[in-house]
Structures are given as C-alpha cells and as structure tokens.
Design a protein that fits this description.
Blueprint (H helix, E strand, L loop, with lengths): L5 E6 L7 H4 L13 H21 L3 E6 L16 E4 L3 E4 L5 H4 L4 H8 L4 E4 L12 H4 E4 L4 E5 L6 H11 L2 E5 L16 E3 L4 E3 L7 H6 L1
Parallel strand pairs: 1-2, 4-5, 7-8
Antiparallel strand pairs: 3-4, 6-7, 9-10
C-alpha cells in the first residue's frame, strides 16, 4: 500500500452506540456509564487530533460535516460506504445496517465526481441482502493488487470476487473468528497492509491453509 496523499474525514455530530450494527459486531459494547454527550465529545476530540496530525504530515484532508438528520451514529467511518482507487475510480458499497445506508450522501459523491469519473456502484445489492462494506470488508494491498476479505454477514464472497474483477485485483477470502467463534465483522479489525509493514492477527484464522496463504 502506498501512503495516501488525500483522506476523507466526516466530522461527527452525534457519534455513539449503534444498535443496528451490534448484532454483527461482538466488539461493540454499550458503556452505560457514559452518556451520549460524553461519547460525542470524546469522539470529536479524537477526530480533531487525528486531522491535525495528518495535516502535519502534509496529507490533504477533506473534512465534511455530518448532518444531524437523519441520525447516522457511524458516519465517522465513510470508508465503509465509499473508496477511491487509481484510474479515477470511485466505489460505492452496500451496507448491512439501514441507518448506515443513510451515510451515502449525494453531495459527497457529487463533490468527488470532479476527480473520480468512473463509478462502480454496488449499493443496489442491498435489495438482494448482499453486503460489502468498503475497506472495512476488504483490505487492499495496492502495491501487489491483492484484496483480502474475511467473510462475514457484512462481507459477501461473491461481491468480493465481482469487485476484484472490475478493479483487477486478486481476491483472497478466508474465515476469521472472534473468541465466541462468531465471524469477525470487518477484515480491517484483524489485519492491515502498510507501505513497509503488515499486521495480522493470525490467531483469529482457524484454517491453517488460509492462514498460510495470507
């Protein structure tokens, strides 16, 4: 993966626990001692700190404000519904949770159409209950043109293959489980590929053949 020169960030307005995504995300826990305002304040503070650090590294950061209506508690993670690739290509993804589908804003898409004229729109697959949540579902090795995907309720194998065919990547799909033997909801929770390093939680991949392949 080459270091990105540009990053899209959505500034949160009401970040918090999302009941609609909890069933497929065993890591998401409702902290009763924290009220909604405290969680939002912490998220906003972390958001501003990260944006500042990225700018210090001379990365072009596009910041777009979230909207209060409709309420989208996970809007801070736009990488799950949109991604950008070489050859001026933009990909739009189908989301499992209905309130996450509302993050897919026309004004944001229109903003980037100036630079990314080719659009691969998979979002209509929501009607078939097939989901693929962006660079959460797929970890791209941009250097070697490999796409890693842990299959889960949010990551449909057939859509992985379909997208890889369109963007000319080699797919590597596998199963990754948490401590309760449930599928880990997003691939980027257990691995990443950087410019000079890679991180993998190999213990989460029970199949030794798949683990070795990765």
């Amino acid at each position: 993966m080459t270091t990105p020169s540009k990053i899209l960030m959505i500034k949160p307005i009401k970040f918090g626990y999302n009941e609609q995504t909890a069933n497929s995300n065993s890591f998401q826990v409702l902290e009763k001692e924290n009220d909604t305002n405290n969680i939002q304040e912490r998220a906003l503070r972390e958001f501003n700190d990260l944006a500042s650090k990225l700018k210090e590294k001379e990365i072009d950061v596009t910041i777009i404000e979230d909207t209060s209506k409709p309420h989208t508690p996970d809007s801070i993670f736009p990488n799950n519904w949109i991604s950008f690739h070489e050859n001026n290509t933009m990909v739009l993804y189908p989301m499992l949770a209905e309130n996450r589908r509302r993050e897919r804003r026309t004004d944001i898409i229109t903003h980037f159409l100036k630079e990314y004229q080719t659009v691969i729109d998979l979002s209509q697959q929501e009607e078939n209950s097939f989901f693929l949540e962006g660079t959460g579902s797929i970890v791209f090795d941009y250097e070697n043109k490999i796409a890693y995907a842990a299959i889960s309720p949010r990551t449909n194998k057939n859509l992985v293959y379909e997208l890889c065919k369109q963007v000319n990547y080699t797919p590597i799909v596998f199963t990754a489980l948490d401590s309760t033997n449930a599928a880990i909801y997003h691939t980027n929770v257990l691995m990443c590929v950087g410019t000079t390093f890679a991180v993998l939680c190999a213990e989460s991949i029970p199949n030794q053949i798949e683990q070795h392949q990765i």
